[in-house]
Amino acid sequence: MGIKKKTKLKSLSQGRPPTTKKPIQSISSKATRTIIRTHHTLEKRRAKALAEGDEVAAAALTREIATQGGLETYQHASLIGQRNDRGGDSSKILMEWLSPLSARLKEQASRGASLRMLEVGALSTSNAVSRSHAFQVERIDLNSQSEGITQQDFMERPLPKDDSEKFDIISLSLVLNYVPDGAGRGNMLLRTLKFLHTAPPALNDFAEWFPSLFLVLPSPCVSNSRYMDEARLEAIMESLGYVMVKKKLSNKLVYYLWRLNSFNLDRVSWKKEEIRTGKSRNNFSVVLKK
Predict the structure, then answer these.
(1) Separation of alpha carbons 96 and 117, rounded Å
(2) Domain limits of the chain?
(3) How many CB atoms are located within 10 Å of the residue 119 CB?
(4) How many CB atoms lie within 10 A of CB 245?
(5) Does residue 211 have a cis peptide bond before it, meaning omega lies within 30 degrees of 0?
(6) CATH of domain 91-260
(7) DSSP characters over 176-203
(8) Could you tell me if 91 and 134 are in contact, meaning their C-beta atoms sit under 8 angstroms apart?
(9) How far apart are CA 190 and CA 158, in angstroms?
(10) Whole-number Å distance between alpha carbons of 184 and 288
(11) Which residue has the higher pLDDT, 197 or 5?
(12) Cα separation, 267 vs 8, whole angstroms
């Protein structure tokens, strides 16, 4: 019998195994999806074992994840998924939504007054947002794959000392679903509030859009979860002070732009409550505690 000791995951990186450094060739679309799904499944099982204090099971799952190629293989598959022939990168949707502001954003940038974006879980420095030159983008990821991306855990990033270190928009594209449990996802959403400006930029045509959160999730997180649907997600976000500005649903992904509209709200608790039944449902949830 292995020794069981309760383990609390304090950061996102603590829930991930060490990365591997094996070179990877281009892979098929089917193989890409398989790698991503398998990695998420193993990570969730590993996080559960850690939470239950089952160190033997957690170690075995860590080895299995490493055998599959680890975080680096997962990131490689994700990068391939961003190619235009595989569906493209999610930031294209954001830039399409912001197209009415494009000229104004670039004008601001040309005057050295760019709006600031924090891209969490960044995989590339050449996605649509980066190519637009509409924002001053700061990119972070747990396992940086290129120059221009800082290796950093968002949950351990130092809090802003003043407004100059805050952002006008945060991108969490296929990041929230990687967090292994509902409480961790709730904490991540809460933490976004600390990094966003508490007022819109001093331009009237920007007030409808910023400060904001660009959130992208796999569609089944809201369409096929036991604990989450569209109405519940919107209610959770509104309890944090966000209002929905834009939404796009597809078979694979859901895209949202949420504007931070209210501040200093009384915190509302959201438990992990079943709202759908059925064996085919997934367990995606967001838990918030007072």
Answers:
(1) 16
(2) 13-86, 91-260
(3) 27
(4) 17
(5) yes
(6) 3.40.50.150
(7) GGGSSSHHHHHHHHHHHHHHB-SS--SS
(8) no
(9) 15
(10) 9
(11) 197
(12) 23
